[in-house]
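Regression check, iron/sulfur cluster case 261:
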Amino acid sequence: MNLPKDYISYNQIRLYRNCPLKYYFTYIEKIKTPINDKILLGTVFHYVIGYYLKKKIETKEPDNGKIKGVFLEEFELEKGENEIVWTSSCDEVKKRGIAFVEYFFKEMASFIDPLMVETELEVKLPNRGVNLRGIIDLVEKDFSITDFKTTTSKWSKSRVDSSYLQIIIYKYLFEKSFCNTSPEVKFKIIYSKNHKKINHQEINIKPKKDDIEKMLEIIDHVIENIDNALFYKNETYMCNFCEFKYICKDFKLVKRDEKVI
Ligand code: SF4
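Current build output:
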């Protein structure tokens, strides 16, 4: 079996490592599921800051006054195109999103010197001839790479660790695409439980010597398992939140029992 897409991405790798059967439902069966309001907010926020930063590259002086309108328009568009599971009211999610955008302009935007925004990079992996693809939120003029996140609370060390592979993949893609230029990598996390008290943290990642070797090993293993159609259940407490939990119950597809590394 070949990969369902002609490339592998961090999202695919993360999903497969969380639960191979969930990967199967999503990428092989292509079962469309609702998204929750946190994903909606994150998607719209990324769109708005991407819009702003691209304008900043083009014109140097983007019109900040229009940004709330851009947010509201994109919010309605995404809401109309997706089935949403609301964990807070639509009005509260919208207010929280606007507060995030306002906070971004007040506290963060003027410190950002964008060179490239939402840059899609693709590199052929050494072992299997499969392309690795990623979209980098922001590259600044000092070649540092930033991935933005929106969430409800400050990231803990374990939360950073769980996204470490993502930023290493972006670093690798950048290095391979731009003559081994070694970029700084960081997460910028904007967080709040409601629209009243927004905060953010910047986490600079200090890469380790064997990061790339380990990353390639993990990706290779995931590709091999997908290629061998290994889609077993990984039953954890996360099943309670899984959108496939009802169809998963009686589902049997496993070829053989193997754990992903
Ligand atoms: S319910 Fe659990 S085992 Fe089933 S697909 Fe979802 S995460 Fe995997």
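Comparison notes: The longest strand covers residues 114-124. Residues 19, 21-22, 233-235, 238-239, 242, 244-245, 248 surround iron/sulfur cluster (CB under 6 Å). No diff flagged against the previous build.
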